[in-house]
Amino acid sequence: MAGKPKLHYFNGRGRMETIRWLLAAAGVEFEEQIFHTKEDLEKLRKDGSLLYQQVPMVEIDGMKMVQSRAILNYIAAKHNLCGKDPKQRAFIDMYCEGAMDLNEMIMMLPLKPADTKEKELATILEKATTRYFPVFEKVLKDHGQDFLVGNQLSRADVQLLECILMTEELKADILSKFPLLKAFKARISNIPTIQKFLQPGNQRKPPPTEKSVAAAMKIFY
Ligand SMILES: N[C@@H](CCC(=O)N[C@@H](CS)C(=O)NCC(=O)O)C(=O)O
Q1: Ligand 1 atom at shortest distance from the alpha carbon of 55
Q2: Whether pTM exceeds 0.90
Q3: Which of 140, 130, 143 is nearest to 161 (CA)?
Q4: Based on the domain organization, do 57 and 108 belong to the same domain?
Q5: Residue 169 lies in a domain
Q6: Does the N-terminal or the C-terminal CB of the chain have fewer CB atoms within 10 Å?
Q7: Domain with 106 in it
Q8: Whose CA is closest to atom 13 on ligand 1?
């Protein structure tokens, strides 16, 4: 039997967090090889482990996988989280890409210059409430089902929940005008594997702080 996937990344959310979420939702236990210094990252680069000299890197099923989307695609395919047919997959991909666009904006916020942060935050909240969340609210309303696609859990549900929780960290009542998303959040959070991942002390990473951002910057720049 293959061992647990091993995740190589710095000690933060970044581009690895969605991978952590998806593995956890699929009920897969994983190990983390956290690196803390530029030298740790350089060592991985020098030993040929990083195809493009970048992380995230995940050792899984005999591969050293890089490129976060490729890793997510592999996990989703392996654990039946990408729909029953190409059309379901197409919708799942569209929803995931939307969630990832919002996720990426939030992920980059701490790296923006201090004097632009307020404006950036306002843009993110505006996009969340006028561009992204209305789409997901309408999807749920139109089909009346529990999950976004095909009436079964897919990576789109997991990635949307991650994205909702990240957005709520910026504005706690962000879902106030989205009742179906509120119910969706409660429902998906209650799936046992996800509930476990949301427990304090699990492998979910906390929101970035000035200190953690500075530590990550020291590794990469
Ligand atoms: N498209 C890649 C981007 C990876 C990426 O930009 N990784 C950053 C850390 S989150 C990195 O390794 N930066 C150092 C570099 O590009 O040399 C992915 O999605 O995995």
Answers
A1: 12
A2: yes
A3: 140
A4: no
A5: yes
A6: N
A7: 86-190
A8: 54
